[in-house]
Amino acid sequence: MRNGTVAACLIPLTMLAVFAATLPERDAAFIGKRRTFWSYVKPVATPVPGNSIGNPVDAFLLQALAAKQLSFNPPLDKRTLVRRVTLDLTGLPPTPAEADAFVNDKSANAYEKLVDRLMSSKHYGERWAQRWLDVVRYADTNGFELDAERTNAWRYRDYVIDSFNANKKYDRFLQEQIAGDELWPGNAEALIATGFLRAGPEHVVGGNVDEEQNRQEVLTEMTTITGSALLGMTLQCARCHNHKFDPIPQSDHYRLQAVFASTEGKQVPYAAEADRKAYEAAKKAYDARVKEFNDAVKKIDAPYRKQIMDERRTKLDAEHLAALDIPKDKRTKEQAVLAKEAEDQITPLWDEVVALLPADEKAKRYAIRKELHAFEYNEPLHPGEAYAVVNMDKTPETHILKIGDHKMKLDAVPAGLPQVLVDPAFAFPQTAAGRRTSLAQWLTSKENPLTARVMVNRIWQFRFGTGLVATPNDFGTLGSRPSNQKLLDWLAVEFMEKGWDMRHIDRMLVLSKAYRQSAAPDAAKAAIDPANKLYWRMNKRRLEGEAIRDSVLTASGALNTKMYGPGIRVPIEKEVYDLIFTEHETDNLWPLPLDKTEMWRRSVYLLNKRTVRLPMFANFDQPDTMSSCAMRSTSTHALQALNLMNSGFMQEQSKLFADRLTKQCKGKRGCEIEQAYRLTLGRKPSPAETQMAAQFLGGDNILSDFTLALFNRNEFVYVP
User: Fold this and answer.
1) Which residue has the higher pLDDT, 584 or 418?
2) pLDDT per position as a tens digit, 233-279
3) Cα–Cα distance for residue pair 417/408, rounded to 1 Å
4) Residue 678's CB: how many other CB atoms inside 10 A?
5) Rounded CA gap, 83 and 118, in Å?
6) What mean pLDDT do residues 134-149 have?
């Protein structure tokens, strides 16, 4: 569908006849009896063990623990518990007042009230969105060598935040992302949701490129993310050949790819006509002013650019020089190629021109560029345009590709679903405009054995550190087997029975005794279950780099809780982008917001550039966004400590934190020490800690040294 027009494109009957006579038989033989593998069989809820009055999660876990003569660890104290659950549900530490309120609440349902309050917070959606964006490999740029920014892509990020905050049901959430434009035409939110299909990297380059190859890579991205993120299937392994371990024939990869064959990415406006016209007028004036700035820079550069080009012309060989001297409209095809090669050889880069500028011209150029970047923050924001997908007018035929090479086409295939998951007689619609709708409806059908299992496992993994299936993106043969399949299947059925309510499952997990137990080690229990697969204790988990940064901002009092909007740039260490930190800056390639408080917003709103990751995030295992990240790794190395101790951000926030303590305590040292502990670690210092802090501050150290040290405590960066 393009501009509201639906084009029905049926696969030729002759092709289907050939297909029917060949591939299905081979595929059926390849799949064979592997249809009975546990994850391909529809989940069935077994009765909850024991007394059904309690939390079903605990009942299933205690049954498995009892079989090994194990039991849960003791529960956490209330002050530690409020820190754990607040960090988990919001990604931010509790304020001292919030912690005190919970500790002092003696009512029987105090914890339930706390959980409900946290789940009603706007920060709940921000926290969940960060995890979902990892899974769908979202970033604000394309990746690869150009890594250009994606206009309006941030609207998908905001859509995800809003969806979790609104407790949007998971079936609707998925349907909007797969086929929102088809199912709810005219609905801006559903249109923006289709940004899911464009969230991955895309090789966008100019010049002589293989458009068919680029198109194939885009379709592959759509196919594989649907498999890994929504089905827990490694469909990418079947791109070049039949899957080596799972019952996924190569044809299945291309059958599912054919579902997206009529889909293309597009910037789709949805604003009202009056708003759009007002924007276009403002944008026209803005662009004209930007052109004035750029023309002024070009005027300064022109003689020095010409000087470089004239010098390089003298070094061209006769053939290239002759082609360059021929007027463009009179060049033959061969001469055009030679002329292009010549232009590439003699054209200087901007920094080569700048290096030639005299000091006064360089200063003049810098002043213009500085004024330009200040002006750029006035760029009008489009009132409504989605980085989305639409249907094309015609649907190209989809072929199996030998070794995944787009130039080596084999059999044509119709659109379809992974055969191991559907009845062989199932007929998938072949109309262009209905393919994604059919996929979305099948994904969220109660007959689908994987979708519900995969999502409840993600929720479990988010709350407990490891999934019941330890490989959240792979429910196949090489993936881990469920540590408690009865519990996993019960949760999957409960999820669907309760209307795909994500918050219902999340709340059940967080209210369980299993979640509220301590993470303390126990040698005797560890000897029986060293990997804690039975969950006899809580897994101790380190915060992600984003949550560490947000916790620092919260403690310092600098956190800006403004929501939504385009990605925000923050200062980068000069080792990351040395060009913009030269002694005599000549060009600002990383312009920062004029309002500094914008740089203190939550990490989920920072510009996520695939090729330039912030050291704090990269050091704490931020995924590269080139592929789906089901679960972040947790490494430990020296760069983490160096970043938390020495980075400009940490130094700045430590001073702001010290200023906050000074104002709050009016210089009273005991108050400063106590409040510093409460704001960072959620508790009062012990007598020994108070004494050590006083001794530390009694020497040559200043208060900001002390606050920096607290930010570097293990207790600060780990969920208790």
Assistant:
1) 418
2) 999 999 999 999 999 999 999 999 999 999 999 999 999 999 999 99
3) 23
4) 20
5) 12
6) 92
User: How far is Cα 300 from Cα 356, in angstroms, rounded to an integer?
Assistant: 11
3-state DSSP assignment of residue 356: helix
* 244 contacts: CB under 8 Å, gap ≥ 6: 237
Residue pointed to by tokens 């935040």:
161
What's the whole-model pTM score? 0.91
Two tokens, residue 77: 């104290």
Task: Give, as one character, the DSSP assignment of residue 137.
Answer: T
pLDDT higher than 70, residue 21: no
Closest CA to 261 of 145, 140, 86, 394: 394
Interacting residues of 190 by C-beta distance below 8 A, sequence separation 6+: 176, 180, 181, 183, 184
Structure-token pair, residue 304:
């020095």
Q: Is 390 helix (H, G, I), strand (E, B) or coil?
A: strand
For 366-395, the pLDDT digits (tens) are 889 888 988 888 889 999 999 999 999 888
Instruction: For residues 429 and 174, give the distance between their C-alpha atoms in angstroms, rounded to a whole number.
Output: 19
User: Is residue 391 classed as helix, strand or coil in its secondary structure?
Assistant: strand
- Alpha helix segments (H runs only) across 446-512: 451-464, 485-497, 502-511
- 632 neighbors 544 (Cβ within 8 angstroms): yes
3-state secondary structure of 600: helix
Cα–chain-centroid distance for residue 631? 12
CB 643 within 8 A of CB 614: no
Query: Taking Cα atoms as reference points, which of 597, 520, 697 lies closest to residue 80?
Result: 520
Q: Encode 534-592 in three state secondary structure.
A: CCCCCCCEECCHHHHHHHHHHHHCCCECCCCCCCECCCCCCCCCHHHHCCCCCCCCCCC
User: For 198, left (φ over 0), alpha (ψ -120 to 50), or beta?
Assistant: alpha
Question: What's the CA gap between 404 and 339, in Å, rounded?
Answer: 35
Nearest to 132 by CA among 440, 472, 443: 472
Helix-strand-coil split of the chain, %, nearest 5: 55, 5, 40
Measured between alpha carbons, how far is 380 from 226 in angstroms, rounded to an integer?
35
Phi, psi of 668 (to 5 degrees): -80, 115
